[in-house]
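Appendix B, example 12.
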Amino acid sequence: MVDVATVMDLKKVDRLVDQTGANPESLIGILQDIQREWHYLPIPALKRVSERLAVPYNRVWAVATFYEAFSLKPQGETHFLVCEGTACHVNGAREILRTFEEALKIEKGQTSQDGKFSLETVHCLGACAVGPTVAVGRTFHGGMNREKVIELVEMYGEKKGGGK
């Protein structure tokens, strides 16, 4: 098994910390920057942030595991979040999830073998009036149906230089 710390460029983590500001109040912003860079929060990066901010590692870990926006396992370049909140559920969220699973050939909680896509569910995206809702990064897509799911997968597949 490869040690991630030997493969990972911790100097890049240092640059992200320096850009955001090496103070404990910047912890969430730094973790967001790291996740944007690697598509998840690698453990060596969390340890480095702990050192650089002089914050106990268990505090960094607590923040990284508290927020659903953070992931400790690699995510795809395009990360689909399907809302399963009450309003989305009653409007067909299960069908939306099944359609994504079929189109991407992965199940929720997985990342495609090529690393292009990952799929997860969340309890609520706060867009109940337009449910079922899917988030891709910071972009929300409401009123989802089978056809719109296929369009999204195709659109993001083309943006990433390929398909599924």
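Residues 146-159 form the longest helix (14 residues). The radius of gyration is 17 Å.
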